[in-house]
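Below is a filled-in request sheet from our internal design queue. Each sheet records the structural input a requester submitted and the sequence that came back. We keep these sheets so that new team members can see what a complete request looks like end to end.

REQUESTER: design group, bay 2
PRIORITY: normal
MODE: inverse folding
CHAIN LENGTH: 242
BACKBONE (tokenized):
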């Protein structure tokens, strides 16, 4: 198969690229950092196709993504995270996160959807934070909620082209990004675990791929509660008290 993964230079994206390469597939490895991309190519020179660009740069997306071979799987994984103080909102911070987590996805979609094979799989990386509101995660959760909506609508809109769309909603995964977090991360899983669950979910045409299921299932259960009860429980569990 021919597979494209954005954010292939670290974390879940790098593990996905490696797993698909090990399985013998051709993988378009996309990312901003030349060195880890070069290492992938060195390890798999016949299979790894290196595309070094920033998904938030529309012109770069056009240059690197137009005219690729027909793609069987596209995983738009590239993203970032920054936390906020709601009493001192930083518009520039929000813009940085939205430009990558939403703008970057849409930039890639414009050029990749027309190149996808019939019965292909399109997977958009979201987060279990999109299931319910979490303090300090406004700038991260809001774009992930947008991606959840986008995945839902695309699953309907692309049905005529027989493209299966998945929304990926992980819990906490041990990556360079989460290592910056300054709060407890319950039920954290490895990138190997995450990549395995994602690959299995894509192969089974899962609409929503969420894991670890005990953690994400609990969040989904909370999200089903009335908003008043939900908000009180979340505030009690997460907000710091003086």
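RETURNED SEQUENCE:
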């Amino acid at each position: 198969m021919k597979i494209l993964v954005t954010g292939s230079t670290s974390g879940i994206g790098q593990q996905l690229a490696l797993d698909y390469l090990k399985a013998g597939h051709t993988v378009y490895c996309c990312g901003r950092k030349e060195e880890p991309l070069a290492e992938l190519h060195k390890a798999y020179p016949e299979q790894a196709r290196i595309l070094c660009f920033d998904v938030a740069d529309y012109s770069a997306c056009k240059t690197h993504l137009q005219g690729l071979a027909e793609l069987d799987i596209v995983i738009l994984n590239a993203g970032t995270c920054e936390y906020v103080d709601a009493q001192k909102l930083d518009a520039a911070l929000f813009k940085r996160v939205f430009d990558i987590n939403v703008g970057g996805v849409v930039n890639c979609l414009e050029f990749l959807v027309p190149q996808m094979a019939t019965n292909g799989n399109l997977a958009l990386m979201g987060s279990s934070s999109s299931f319910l509101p979490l303090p300090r995660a406004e700038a991260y959760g809001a774009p992930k909620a947008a991606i959840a909506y986008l995945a839902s609508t695309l699953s309907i809109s692309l049905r005529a082209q027989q493209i299966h769309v998945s929304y990926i909603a992980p819990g906490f995964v041990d990556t360079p990004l989460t290592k910056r977090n300054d709060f407890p991360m319950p039920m954290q899983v490895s990138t190997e675990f995450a990549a395995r669950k994602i690959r299995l979910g894509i192969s089974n045409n899962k609409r929503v791929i969420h894991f670890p299921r005990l953690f994400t299932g609990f969040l989904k259960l909370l999200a089903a509660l009335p908003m008043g009860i939900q908000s009180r429980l979340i505030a009690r569990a997460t907000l710091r008290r003086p």
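SHEET NOTES:
- The mean pLDDT is 92.
- The two ends are 55 Å apart (CA to CA).
FILED BY: M.R.
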